[in-house]
Amino acid sequence: MLGLVFGALRARWVQALVMVVLAALTVVAAMVAGRAAGTAGRDAARARIDQATVAERTLRVRGLVAAGDRPEDALRRIDSLVDAPVERKAGGMRLPGSLLDESGGRRQTAELRYADGLCDNLTLRDGRCPAADGEVVLPDDLARLLGAGVGDRLQHESGLVATAVPLRVVGVYAPADAGGWFWSGQDGVAAYTTAATIDSAKATVTVTMAALLRPEAFDDAGGLRTGLDRLRGARFEATSGAPALADAVAADRRAVSRGIGLAEVEILLFGGLAIAVAAAYAAQERRGDAARMAIRGLPTWRIRAATAGQSILPLALGSVWAPRLFAAGVVIVAAADWSATRGGVGELMRDVRPRRPLVAATAEVCALGLGAAALFQIVAAPAADVRRDAGFGLAQVAPLLVAAALGVLGTRVLLAAAGLYGRHALAAGRLTAALAGLTLGRRRTAYRIIPVLAAATCVLGLAAQDYAGGADARARRAGVELGADRVLPVAPVNRERLLAAVRAADPGGHEAMAVVVTGPSGGPPVIAVDSARLRSVAGVDGAALHPAAPAPLAFSGTDLQLAASGDGARVRLLLGVDGTGEQVVAEFGPLSAQPARYRATVPACVRGCRVEALETAAAVTGQDHGPVELRELAAGGTVVVAGDVFADPVRWRTTIGQQASGVQVAQGGGGLRLTDVRPRTDRPVDSRLYAVDTPVPLPALAAGEAAENNTNDQPSASVFGVSVPLDLRPAALVPRGGGNGVLVDLEYSARIAAAAVGVIPAAEHPEVWLAPGASGAVVDRLRAAGLDVGGGDSVAAAKERAGRLAPAVTLLGDLAAAGVVLLLAAVAAFVVAAVDRRDRDAELAALRRQGVAHGTVRRVERRAALAPVLVAVLVGVAASVLLRLLAPPPVRPFSDRWPVPEPSVQPLALLVAGAVALALFGAVAVLHPGRRR
C-alpha cells in the first residue's frame, strides 16, 4: 500500500509539493505570529513608557514637618517607603512666604526652597550656586520683579511665628532644561538656598521627594497602587500618573497580543480553506486510480487509504510542528477523497463528473447565508472593536465570509455571462472570443476558486486600507501635536528678542515662526505664536489672532520731557526697549503743584522704546500725595503722548488680572489725572495705568476644555502669568495644544504681560517652528541672530515614535497576516490550475487538430485563465470597500480618544492591494509549469 502511495506521489509530485508548501506556510506563519505577539507587545509597551510624560513616570511625595523636627528624617522615611525601581530621585524642602528687598519697598510672594541636584540643572546668568548658609539664587523673572542682583540683601518672611531669614543673592539663573524632569516639579515662584538656611526659619516646612520610575516599574500596576497607599497611610501626600500608565501598558500588551492572535487565527482558517481546496481538486486527479483499484477488487477502505494518503503524507510533512492542523487536515482530505471517489467504476472512469446540483446549491446557500449573517452583524454594531473582544465570532471572520459570499455570486454571474458571450461571439464569427467564452462557461467546477481568491483580496484590501489610514492619521496627529514640520527648542530668551531674531532670520515670513509655549501647571497649554506667519508655517489661518489695535506709543531718543503737575509726587514711566524687550524706568519729579516740564534720561531707548505703563511713586514707596496731572510726553522735542492721547480713555486701562486697581483715573480737559486709592480687599493691588496697544479681550483660538465657558463670566486664561480675558474662537484642534489648548498672538500677549504687577512667572518654553521644506540656512541665520537653538523634533520623528505604539504594531501585524493569506490563496490557485491543466490541454490540442491557429489557442487559454482571476480581484476589492463603508476599522490608530477624521476608504491603498493581488494570481494562472505547445 505504501509503495502504491509513494509511486503515485512520484507521478504527481507537483500536487504533493503544493500540499507540503500549503501546510508548511500555514504552520510557519501561525508560529511566527504567535511568537511575534509577545515580542511586539513588549516593544509596544516599552515605546509607550518611553513616550510618556514626566508626570506619568514620576512619583511625587510631600509632607509637612513641624517646627523643631528634622526635615532630613522625613526625607529618609519617604525614601524607605518608596520600593519601586527608581531611575532618578531628588529630595527637597519648601518654605512658603514672601521675599523683600533690603529697603522693604518691594515684596514678592515666593517660596524659599532647597532641592537636591539644583546646581546640575540650572544655567547661571550671573554669580554662583549657594554654598553657605544665607546664600540664595534667584530666577531671572523674580530678580527683575525685586530689582535684585548679585550681592544684594533680601529677607524671607514666612508668617508671624516664623523667624525672618536674612539672605544674600549670590546668583541669578535660568533652568538648563525648562521642560526636563527636574524642573517639571518646580512649579511656582521660588528662590533656592541651602537646607540649613530653611531650618533657621524655625517654621513648618514642606519636604518633597520626586522619583523618576524605571520602565520595569510599570509591569505591576497593583504594586504601584499599593506603594501609593503605603505612603498615604504614613500621612504623606503622594501623587503619580504611574498606575494609570501601567494600566495603559498592560492594555497595550493585551491589544497587541489579541490583535496578532486574531491574525494568527485568520491565517489558520484561511490555510485550512486553502488545504481544503487543494485537497478537493487533487482528489479529482485520483478518480482514475480509485477506479483501477476497484477493478482489481481492492476493498473500499484500502482504496480510500491509497487515494487519501497521497495528500495526507505531504500534509504530515508540512505540518509536523502543528498536530492540531494535521488532524484537521486529515479530516478535510478524507472528506474530499470520499466525495470524489464514492461512485461506481463506470462513474469514476468518466472524465466529466456527474452534476450534483443539490450538493452544489447547498454549499452555495450556506456560503451566502454566512456572508449575510456576517454583514448583518457588522451593520448592527458598526463601532464594535473586535480587537477588544476576547471571544471569537462572525465579526472576526466577516471579511472572509462576506467576500466568499460575493465570490459565489460573482462566479454565477461569470459563468452565465461567459456562456452567453461565447454564443453571441460564435454567431458573429469572432472565434477567439467565442472559444474563450464557451470554455469559461463549461468549466464550472474549476471556478469555485473564485470565492477563495476574492476572500484573500478582500483581507489584503482591508489590511492595506487600515494601515494606510492609520499612517495618515498618525502623520496628521504628529503635525498637530508638534505644531509644525520641525520644532527647534530655544534656550530661555526674552519674548520680544525671540520675535525680533526670528523675523530677522526669515524676513519673508515663510520658513520660521517664533513661538512660546506656556500656561498654568496641569492646565491646557497656551501657545503664543507670531500669527502673521502661522498659515505659512503651520497651515492654520492666524489672521483672527492679530486684529487692528491702537499703535504703540513708541519713540526713539534718550531725553524725555514730561509736562505734569502734582503736590510732591513722583511719576514713573515703564518703557520696553524695541527688539530686546528689556524694561527700563524713567522717573520724573518730585512734581510741583503748578504745571511744569520734567526731564529724565533713558540711554537704552536710543534705538527705540515704547510706553508700557505709568505709575506714581506711591505705588513703590507707599508715600501719600495728592492727584497727579499729566499733559504731554516728548522725546527730543518730538511729542510722544499728546494731551488728547492722555485724555483718551481708549488708550489707557487699569489692571485686567486678578488684582484690584489701586488708581483712580479722570480724563478730559486735555490731560490725565491719577489719584492713588487703597481699596478694601484681600486681593493684591495694582496701581499702574497701562498703555493700550493690544486688543482686550485678547483674541484666541481654543479647543477642548479651554473653549468651554459654562458660566456667564468672561473667559480668561493665564498668559505668561497674567490672567487675560479672552475673545474665544472655538476650534476642534489647535497646533501643539491638540484637542485642549489656547492659541494667542505672541506680540500682543507679550505686550500685555510685559509691565504687569505681581505676575507669578509661569514656565515658558521658547521655540522656533519651521515650515515644510525650510532650508538649513534659516537655522544658521537663527543662531547668527543670537538664539541658542537646539536639535528639536520633527513630524517624521513623531510619526516614527507613534509607529512603535500598540495600534500601529497591530495594524502592521494585520497587514503581514494579509500577505500570508494572499500567498496561501495563490498556492491554492496553483493547485486548481495544475489539476485543470490536463483537461484544458486536451481540449486545446483537439482545437489545434481541427485547424485552429496556435496564436488563437494561446489567446483562448490566456483569457480563460485570467477571467476568473479578474472577477475574483474585483469582487474582493468591492467587498473591502463595502465593509469599510459599513463599519470603521476594528483597530483605531490611537489608544486614546483623539479624533480620526480619515475617510474609511483609502483609494490609493486599495488600488495597490488590488494590483498586487491581480499580479500574483494572474502569474499563477498564466505561468504555471508544464505548459506544452
Automatic annotation (TrEMBL):
Q: Where is the signal peptide?
A: none
Membrane-spanning intervals of the chain = 12-33, 262-283, 321-338, 358-380, 400-421, 445-464, 815-835, 864-887, 907-927
Keywords carried by this UniProt record: Membrane, Transmembrane, Transmembrane helix
Source organism superkingdom: Bacteria
Kindly give the InterPro entries that the UniProt entry links to this protein. Macrolide_Exporter_MacB
Keyword Membrane assigned: yes
**Coiled-coil regions in this chain?**
none
Identify this protein by name.
FtsX-like permease family protein
